[in-house]
Amino acid sequence: MRSIYIAATEASAGKTTLAVGLCRALRERGVDVGYFKPIGAAGQPQAGRDDDAAFVTEALGLPDDPRTLCPLRLSESAVESAEGTHVESPLDVLQSAYARVAERHEALVCEGLGEVWQGRFAHVSGADAVAALDLPALLVARFAGARQLDDVCYVKDVLRARLQGVVFTKVPETRLDAVEHDYGRFLAGNDVRGYGIIPADKQLAAVSVKAIAAGVGGTLLAGTAAADRLAEGYLIGAMGPEHALAYFERTPNKVVVVGADREDLILAALSSSTVALVLTGTAPPSPDVVRQAERDGVALIAVPQDTVFAADALRHLFGRISVHDPSRVDLIARIVAERVDVDRLLADLS
User: E strands of 260-346, at which residues?
Assistant: First the structure.
């Protein structure tokens, strides 16, 4: 089979999920498949190592150094090597690194960076990469209503014949029929293949309390026994106390971001289905709050920054960190096997 490049219309669309699941499914069909990420983002927690490449390397049991599988990094103004040095001819480096990895496998699943157009200023966008490596592209389109179809049209205009097809991801249960039938007709009418629809999955999207604490840079003050509990979403506590409880009760298994000095909102959140509270600011929680949190098994995470900072950190966490969990690899593989037409894709790439 031919190697394939996984592109997306936006960050956190599900590229890593699809890459891992597709590799597992192809292996089960006897294909010696490897992984490659042409370019990653600079400024990740471990310098020189792309988080996605490191996770996939571990998830698939690959012997490769993640820096070999992701040879380039995109900073705000330039392209760097995995070691952090400036690269004058990034596509030459990319082609050489790709060839070295490809010679060890029958095919590669190549994961793109963020949005398909990201890196265009340095000529290393998804479109540049698929052209340089001569790869077909499978587009991951995260559900966003009709606007998503505009994105598909745009990507087709850019990639032209290199667009192999589309997989829709994170589709709400209530919209599955519409995506299958209405969007399916749209794809067929525009000569774009549809290879699958992956529903939104609460278990896959959930984030552990310890990952939340690390992601917001917080300190766990109480509820340490809840470190492995999973939060399925987050809310911001910034309303009047008379509306707080009704607001919090609408979302189960959540983390709530609230000012540490808002004890009225903190107690309301503790009275609902809450996994953790991120307390922003420097005020310490009262003994009553700590006792109730310990009794209810709710983690209290203190963050000295403001609520905007914490909310932004959570927004990033719930988009991507949850898939970087080895315990979810089997779940990822099952979802892709059930929801993506791997046999058709394999036949089309052979």
Answer: 274-280, 299-303
